[in-house]
Amino acid sequence: MLKALKGMFAGGAVAAAAPADDDERDASGKPKVTLAKALKRGWLELWYQPKVSLQTGSWIGAEGLIRARHPELGVLGPFAFLPGAAESDLLTMTEWVIATALRDWNDCAAVGMPRLNLAVNVPASGFVELPIARIIREERPKSDEWPGLILEVTEDQIVNDLKIANEVASELREQNCSLAIDDFGAGYSSLARLRQLPFSELKIDRAYVTDCHRDRGKEGLLESIIELARRFGLKTVGEGIETAHESHKLQGLGVGIGQGFFFAKPMAKTDLLAQISSTTGKRLVERPRPWWQFGAAPTLKTG
């Protein structure tokens, strides 16, 4: 199943740390970074931004966000290497992201937070081109404590193909996984269409969150969104929360979950685990990495 991902590391672990002397450079001399190159050289990392209960302040989940660690430029956000990426590379990255999040949950559980519900972003094309349900079924944690994986897709990407969304949601439910509408409100679709969408979580776009405590127009729109979500049994997540005022306002309106710089910035998995460990007192015992993370498959000795 992960043949394509294993092939990304066929050059060996040294590739990720090798100097980028052969990189194409721009006019200023800075290396040009592409998704294809990041995949080939093993630069990709999945960072996490916690999702917080607005009622208790405790971590209840985390969204996986793609990054690339360039040997010269350091850690790069997605806008530095995703624009112009080939569809095939985006699909390979999506498969890698899903497999990585499934594996990372084991580490979260090992340091004492098995309830942490991880989420990843999936393009609409991924639901068509990738056997996502099968990937999850084969790679998912075996623990009974696993809370499932949330797959986030933006409103404008999925709203035009409800048939596919419903088919995928049905398959995911069998694996204890669910779909979330990301950046809701940015696509300007009818709120009434929520009834037709097979989602369990609605993430309110940051455009409605910013300054919501002093903008009566935004407050009114939020009230409508939250009431409809409540009517349809959807969890609500406020995205891009940057101040205590915004957090308190959203909580007062009935939003259950918050995400944004006010609570925590995206962080490397090692930092996420360290913060969890500081609370639980449990430390991660390193497991041997799969052979494909090192490079070529090991040669079996027959005597």
**Main CATH class:** Alpha Beta
- Taken in chain order, the helices and strands follow as HHHEEEHEHHEHHEEHHEHEH
Oligomeric form of this entry? single chain
How many strand segments? 9
Give the count of structural domains: 1
At CATH level 2, the architecture is Alpha-Beta Barrel
Number of helices: 12
Cα radius of gyration in angstroms: 20 Å
Give the CATH H-level superfamily.
EAL domain
Given as residue ranges, the uncertain stretches (5+ residues, pLDDT < 50) are 1-21, 294-303
**Proportion in β-strands:** 15-25%
Describe this entry's structure for a reader:
The chain is α/β, with parallel strands linked by helices and 303 residues long. The chain has one domain (48-280): Alpha-Beta Barrel (TIM Barrel), CATH 3.20.20. It has helices at 3-8, 14-17, 35-41, 87-110, 124-129, 132-139, 155-158, 162-173, 206-209, 216-231, 244-253, 269-280; strands at residues 44-53, 59-70, 74-76, 117-121, 150-154, 178-184, 201-204, 235-238, 257-258. The chain has an eight-stranded mixed beta barrel with strand order 1-2-4-5-6-7-8-9, surrounded by five helices. The chain is globular, with a radius of gyration of 20 Å.
